């Protein structure tokens, strides 16, 4: 009778092992075996991190093995089990790999195919087509799209401090070089401007091509800040004026979560200037959108505390937009859309599923937790923002490093696409892929053309670009806007999470006492410090960009592409490390050895 050797690998994470009964049956082209209990006498099977082998003898020839069914049945108490993979040695000496990398819960079962990636058109056998269809039907019941209204995640957000120095009482407990430098220099205009390029939220600043009517600033107002003997309009034409507009916050009510403390929001407009030292500095701030006598334009030439409080209001607004839009919406929630669409429309055997699964590893789980407790356009370096020129803005490290990582990912995705799609026609005819893209567009982007996402893909190049967006968003973009939070936001006056007094409506009346009373109280400051510290930490089992320990792909060409991807990323790591040498403010958030594969915190 034919005999097979089955090797079973259990995960090494906590509680991965099981004492439940594990049964296995083989489905071949010529027949199906009975269920076999995988058990060794006087041996504790399926322990955490174990690799166990079993001999399975069948009554008749099964032909080519097409599927392996693994069932878990209760022994005493329900005991979840993490199955990494199975390997099968056939009676003819062939080895077949069956990747799993998933939990089996309760009285559960999984049906596995061998590890070769296959498009739907590659499956000509009825049982494989049926398995593919049933897998997606099951997943579509588990993963359902639902609208998350904006007010659901606008809710992210009692004695006063004595003065700015009083904030050090909590700050010095946890410190690092960048955050200490922020504490010392946060009031300086060039430090204020630098954060729009390389801080937590480096995506809002754009070149100003025309002064907005709602910001009636004149040359006379900012003359003392202009260094080229040009008018403000001429500086705009020369490309030296930049703008950050927090219009998104206009009309939003502040939280009323604390009945003892009123909270306030502003929707400022900040005009910035590239001076002769190539530094970006603020030259005008209006704290609300509609100009008027009670909405003055604050200037560097104003009284010290007038100008300082105006900048603090901008930093607070930047914090809110960063947390709700840049961080939560454009990395966490967008990545979740990709993840859910992937599980709904791509079977585990599909090459795009195998490529993306590492990049949505914890996203759905962490977002579910965030909703319980806390709560784009294609071109991430868009020319429409006017920020693409290295010569014009030489210290925009987010842009420079991001482009290096983007190109490395794009090269990798293009290689993988080329392995499985020999022509544009194959892309267009891959219905599972098209359903995935459509799911993202219809449910994730609500069918809005303005989202910049397509509802179909027609070429290998567009598919590669799309996959680059998915991977970059979940890895590099999230790293850029998440892991610097303690660096830039732990000094409370530099990133106030809440303001306890309304924006000033007149000049010449602001005092240091008024500023301190406007900043968060002691309780909220401590909560904020703990939150940004926790959000800035890597996970204990973090997998960084290019690391694929779960071998969903078994084909040699893809493994070689992965190796080249890692080599390209190492080059980027070296370039960034060399650039950062001797810098007082090093920028390392987009160094690939610090970019997790997926949104995990």
Automatic annotation (TrEMBL):
Annotated transmembrane regions: none
Annotated site (Essential for stabilizing binding to COTL1): 103
UniProt keyword annotations, A-Z: Calcium, Cytoplasm, Dioxygenase, Iron, Lipid metabolism, Membrane, Metal-binding, Oxidoreductase
InterPro entries listed in its UniProt record: LipOase, LipOase_C, LipOase_C_sf, LipOase_CS, LipOase_Fe_BS, LipOase_mml, PLAT/LH2_dom, PLAT/LH2_dom_sf
Lipoxygenase domain ranges (all copies): 145-601
Superkingdom of origin organism: Eukaryota
Domain PLAT: 2-118
Residues the record lists as binding Ca(2+) 1: 17, 79-80
GO MF assignments: metal ion binding; oxidoreductase activity, acting on single donors with incorporation of molecular oxygen, incorporation of two atoms of oxygen
Subcellular location: Cytoplasm, Cytosol; Membrane
PROSITE patterns in alphabetical order: LIPOXYGENASE_1, LIPOXYGENASE_2, LIPOXYGENASE_3, PLAT
A GO CC term assigned to this protein in UniProt: membrane
Record: residues binding Ca(2+) 2: 39
Cofactor: Fe cation
UniProt pathway: Lipid metabolism
Biological processes annotated in GO: icosanoid metabolic process; long-chain fatty acid metabolic process
UniProt cofactor note: Binds 1 Fe cation per subunit.
SMART domains cross-referenced by the UniProt entry: LH2
Main subcellular location of this protein, as a coarse class: cytoplasm
Keyword Membrane assigned: yes
Any Pfam family matching the protein: PLAT
Residues holding Fe cation: 327, 332, 478, 601
Catalysed reactions, as listed in the record: (4Z,7Z,10Z,13Z,16Z,19Z)-docosahexaenoate + O2 = (14S)-hydroperoxy-(4Z,7Z,10Z,12E,16Z,19Z)-docosahexaenoate
Family listed: Belongs to the lipoxygenase family.
Protein name: Polyunsaturated fatty acid 5-lipoxygenase isoform 2
Organism of this sequence: Daubentonia madagascariensis
